[in-house]
């Protein structure tokens, strides 16, 4: 678990970058052969783009770096369980393993609402590891939304 925690800490650092720019604090890193090849954080509000999720931005960066859409052998570390859109991109990019921190009871598709990543009806599946540094990942989100609600109350 030590390896997973090391890379999840990097994803948490990305999530904190999102928080600094008033984005929902979600971060992702992609690792291939022990090397971080991509890192990203949510930019949906900044870019006013529904698909600017941390996972998708990291996948895009990794594909550009490698010069291919096939990320076979790659591992994705993300602070929040992937949504259906991100899970689809993970499968289509052939990511081998997904490790996430906090579960998402509203949109989680890596084990909570459903598990798209291990569904054998698809031509690719990803190994899933959940709950790595879950408390730290979850508290980032909880504190962010608490702060937003407090600001709304004061205005």
TrEMBL record:
Binding of Zn(2+), residues: 53, 83, 86
Enzyme class: hydrolase
Record-annotated active site: 55
Sample GO molecular function, one term: tRNA-specific adenosine-34 deaminase activity
Cofactor requirement: Zn(2+)
EC number: 3.5.4.33
Domain CMP/dCMP-type deaminase: 2-127
Pfam families: MafB19-deam
Catalytic activity line of the entry: adenosine(34) in tRNA + H2O + H(+) = inosine(34) in tRNA + NH4(+)
Record has tRNA processing as a keyword: yes
Gene3D superfamilies per UniProt: Cytidine Deaminase, domain 2 (3.40.140.10)
Entry keyword set: Hydrolase, Metal-binding, tRNA processing, Zinc
Cofactor binding description: Binds 1 zinc ion per subunit.
Entry-linked InterPro entries: APOBEC/CMP_deaminase_Zn-bd, CMP_dCMP_dom, Cytidine_deaminase-like, MafB19-deam, tRNA_aden_deaminase
Family classification: Belongs to the cytidine and deoxycytidylate deaminase family. ADAT2 subfamily.
Subunit structure, as described in the record: Homodimer.
Job of this protein: Catalyzes the deamination of adenosine to inosine at the wobble position 34 of tRNA(Arg2).
Stated name of the protein: tRNA-specific adenosine deaminase
Organism: Siminovitchia sediminis
């Amino acid at each position: 678990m030590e390896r997973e925690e090391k890379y999840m800490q990097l994803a948490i650092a990305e999530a904190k970058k999102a928080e600094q720019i008033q984005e929902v604090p979600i971060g992702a890193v992609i690792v291939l052969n022990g090397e971080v090849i991509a890192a990203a954080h949510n930019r949906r509000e900044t870019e006013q783009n529904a698909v600017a999720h941390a996972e998708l931005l990291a996948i895009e960066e990794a594909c550009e770096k490698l010069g291919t859409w096939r990320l076979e052998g790659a591992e994705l570390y993300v602070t929040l369980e992937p949504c259906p859109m991100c899970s689809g991109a993970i499968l289509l990019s052939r990511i081998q393993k997904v490790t996430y921190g906090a579960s998402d009871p509203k949109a989680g598709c890596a084990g909570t609402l459903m598990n798209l990543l291990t569904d054998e009806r698809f031509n690719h599946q990803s190994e899933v590891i959940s709950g790595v540094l879950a408390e730290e990942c979850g508290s980032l989100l909880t504190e962010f939304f608490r702060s937003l609600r407090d600001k709304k109350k004061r205005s």
